[in-house]
Amino acid sequence: MDWKGRDVISIRDFSREDIEVVLSTAERLEREMKEKGQLEYARGKILATLFFEPSTRTRLSFESAMHRLGGSVIGFAEASTSSVKKGESLRDTIKTVEQYADVIVIRHPKEGAARLAAEVAEVPVINAGDGSNQHPTQTLLDLYTIKKEFGRIDGLKIGLLGDLKYGRTVHSLAEALSHYDVELYLISPSLLRMPRHIVEELKEKGMKVIETTKLEEVIGELDVLYVTRIQKERFPDEQEYLKVRGSYQVNLDTLRNVKETLRIMHPLPRVDEIHPEVDRTKYAIYFKQVFNGVPVRMALLGLVLGVI
Amino acid sequence: MPELKVSAIKEGTVIDHIPAGKGLKVIEILKLEKLSNGGAVLLAMNVPSKKLGRKDIVKVEGRFLSEEEVNKIALVAPTATVNIIKEYRVVEKFKVEVPEVIEGILRCGNPNCITNHEYVTTKFYVISRNPLKVRCHYCERTMEEEEILANL
Q1: Residues A80, A90: contact at Cβ < 8 Å?
Q2: Burial (CB count <10 Å: 0-12, 13-18, 19+), residue A1
Q3: Less Cβ around it within 10 Å: N or C end of chain B?
Q4: A269: preceding bond cis by omega (within 30 degrees)
Q5: How far is B139 from chain A (nearest CA, A)?
Q6: Which residues from chain A sit within 8 angstroms of residue B110, using beta carbons?
Q7: ipTM above 0.85, yes or no
Q8: List of chain B residues whose C-beta atoms are within 8 Å of the C-beta of residue A106
């Protein structure tokens, strides 16, 4: 696989081998970053971050990654400060921005926007989240985190908890995990179950999938518990949101009978689904996850720029 | 009941065995209402059929539709057969088949898909033929038969 110029749009476009290339490159860059602080791989290269909807965390993570690689960053953090407000089409925004940058990172509220941007742009495009569809770099950093914690991904029992209906991080993660020999537990209120077509696809790929509404029945089995927020902004109907708001919370009580080696992950931000007292336990690794976003995004930027 | 005879055409394409009521949709999908060669388009609706009970037939005079073009109609008329006519004789006959990629004729049923907000030619991958299931190239959402028909 030639990475130079490649777009990163959907985890569906990634084979297991592709994923392994990203993870091992991230591992190498993390080591180099610790040794040298500043790297020079992307000196002279410019990243444009086009955030049509706000996401401080992901944007800062990409910006940090590009700076760590020695490159520089331009962009906007919300559509209201760009020409989009004047009615400019996405196509025209991309055609314009590609004149200024060597790589584009896009976050957009409409599903499929990143794919369209990639088709329009001559420079590589990285999807930083398109509506409730895909967020492939989050998935790659999730896989990187799991691999760092356990030294492997195969053989693990992984539970996804929360909004499995609208949560794009869990959609992508489930798809990516189907490349590995894992058991997947899907834990959610019935209103927020993983979409049928995704579950069917996972099963067709031979994955063992267990669906339940009761966390307490399965938590003792798990190696990883991946918790997600119930995202009010993704609900088309507020009444539906009110029915499921606060329907689960992970706290010290919940963790009484878990495996010693359990690791709790969360893409953040959280609201009340993990009690802050859990942060101090050995199980919580969500802030490590945030850190891991930087080497993973450095790896992706370096690979698609062809400088690594 | 004897089959209804519709006047023969000298050259062109006859799409037969269209499920009753779908003939107009076939004309729409193939954009035959905009036929520029001056040839006639004949539509017979709800005619008796041994195979289907009732069927629609579309005859397109003076134009040979490509196999790929015709296959688009498999989305609404999976039972259809296509006859290529030259000098009043059938020179080629085939059944329609759902193509692997459907471009331009289907809207995405996801209201938040970028294709419903920007000028984009839609593109879908057929992931299952029976039952019919397609995936949007852009938003990756899958649509099943009922939703596909509603978005043609």
Answers
A1: no
A2: exposed
A3: N
A4: yes
A5: 4
A6: 111
A7: yes
A8: none
